């Protein structure tokens, strides 16, 4: 990202927990921030209202995204599987199509996404994903497959993207930048726990880390037992 003027980033899905942490990290780093969220959630951004520009609307609305990402050096997108109308893939596609040509595009998802099929998942993890997907289809509120489709499109794109795959999340004070690996199942990730505030930190730091371009890091908290054991070698 260019550094000779105030840099501008867009947070797509800014009103959620991860989104608000990203807004805070971005403001701390003196980015100019544009936030996109559903109209009904604008009030969740009240604490930032005088410091950011809010573009209300569904994040899979191409016109909303076109307006929000104009002139942005980076776009931080929370990919959520809510709804049954291709919310995730619609959001990802709008960002891929409308972001500035050289913009850094950072997307969030979970460990269940795999880029190359080489991740090793425990039977427990696979069972949980299967049950969640089944329940989701039953209540027609969540579309896990659509988050998979969103990531398939991102992986196929020649944009400057990074897909950050979060472990199980918890709240709490920041512990620092999470560590990462390309493959779920690698010992460093065994603790499967990251503070949400640090997930957001990783996303924001990725904006300026070119080693993460076209990578899909699976992350884990840097103070978790598995990360500490890895650091000790
Ligand atoms: N939760 C976990 O344990 C976990 C684990 C690994 C990875 N992740 C990843 O982390 C990211 C953030 O997840 P999170 O669970 O922490 O959620 P979150 O940050 O609270 O964000 C939820 C987002 O979903 C939106 N949303 C909620 N209901 C919706 C609906 N019916 N239609 C459209 N949008 C809706 C919210 O918008 P409003 O503010 O408008 O409601 C908000 O932007 C996601 O990419 C997720 O895949 C989560």
UniProtKB/TrEMBL annotation:
Residues 13-209 form the NAD(P)-binding domain. Coiled coil: none annotated. It comes from the Bacteria. It holds the Pfam family NAD_binding_10. One of its GO terms (molecular function) is biliverdin reductase [NAD(P)H] activity. Gene3D superfamilies: NAD(P)-binding Rossmann-like Domain. SUPFAM superfamilies: NAD(P)-binding Rossmann-fold domains (SSF51735). This is Putative NAD(P)-binding protein. It comes from Herbihabitans rhizosphaerae.
């Amino acid at each position: 990202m260019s550094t000779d003027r105030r840099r501008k980033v867009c947070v797509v899905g800014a009103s959620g927990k991860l989104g608000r942490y990203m807004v805070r990290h971005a403001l701390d780093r003196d980015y100019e921030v544009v936030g996109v969220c559903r109209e009904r959630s604008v009030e969740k951004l009240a604490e930032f209202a005088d410091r950011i520009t809010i573009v209300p609307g569904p994040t899979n609305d191409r016109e909303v995204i076109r307006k929000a990402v104009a002139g942005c050096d980076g776009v931080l997108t929370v990919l959520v599987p809510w709804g049954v109308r291709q919310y995730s893939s619609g959001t990802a596609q709008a960002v891929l199509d409308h972001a500035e040509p050289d913009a850094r595009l950072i997307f969030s998802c979970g460990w269940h996404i795999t880029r190359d099929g080489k991740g090793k998942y425990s039977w427990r993890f696979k069972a949980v994903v299967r049950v969640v997907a089944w329940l989701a289809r039953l209540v027609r509120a969540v579309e896990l497959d659509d988050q998979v489709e969103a990531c398939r499109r991102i992986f196929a794109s020649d944009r400057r993207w990074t897909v950050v795959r979060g472990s199980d999340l918890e709240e709490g004070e920041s512990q620092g930048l999470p560590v990462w690996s390309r493959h779920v199942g690698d010992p460093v990730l065994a603790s499967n726990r990251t503070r949400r505030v640090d997930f957001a930190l990783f996303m924001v730091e990725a904006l300026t880390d070119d080693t993460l371009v076209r990578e899909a890091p699976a992350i884990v908290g840097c103070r978790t037992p598995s990360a500490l054991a890895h650091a000790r070698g």
